[in-house]
Amino acid sequence: MTQQTEKSAAELVQQASEQLSQLVREELRLATAEMREKGRRAGRGGGLYGGAALVGVLALQALVATVIAALALVLPVWASALIVTAVLAITAAVLAGQGRRGPVRPRR
Fold first, then answer.
1. What is the DSSP string of 47-87?
2. Which sequence ranges are marked TM in the entry (predicted)?
3. For the chain, which residues make up each domain, given as ranges?
4. Phi-psi sector, 99: left (phi>0), alpha (psi -120 to 50), beta
């Protein structure tokens, strides 16, 4: 009744174990490759955000120079620069004070 082509239970368990091990290794390779690709995309995106932040800071510096130049039309240049510097210092102090208190929690 039993044929020689049929495998014993021990052989079937061993074969299943080998196939499961191979499947797990292949899934780990696939997951590693996917994470590597996601890391590359995130790195590029982060670099672009960093570049955008730098250009934004440069734009703000140009805006400050423009405000000084505009005030210099009616005041001496040193007074214009002093006024703009004082406004920026006060703004920085207010923001630092707000940040020191922590985030504002909305009322319910």
1. HHHHHHHHHHHHHHHHHHHHHHHHHTTTS-HHHHHHHHHHH
2. 46-71, 77-97
3. 9-101
4. alpha
The neighbour count for residue 35, using CB atoms within 10 Å, is 10
CA–CA distance, 88 with 96 (Å, rounded to integer): 12
Cβ 68 vs Cβ 77: under 8 Å: yes
- Judged by DSSP in three states, 28 sits in helix
Q: Is 46 helix (H, G, I), strand (E, B) or coil?
A: helix
Residue 106 corresponds to which amino acid?
A: P
What tens digit of pLDDT does each residue of 58-95 get? 999 999 999 999 999 999 999 999 999 999 999 999 98
**15 touches 7 (CB < 8 A):** yes
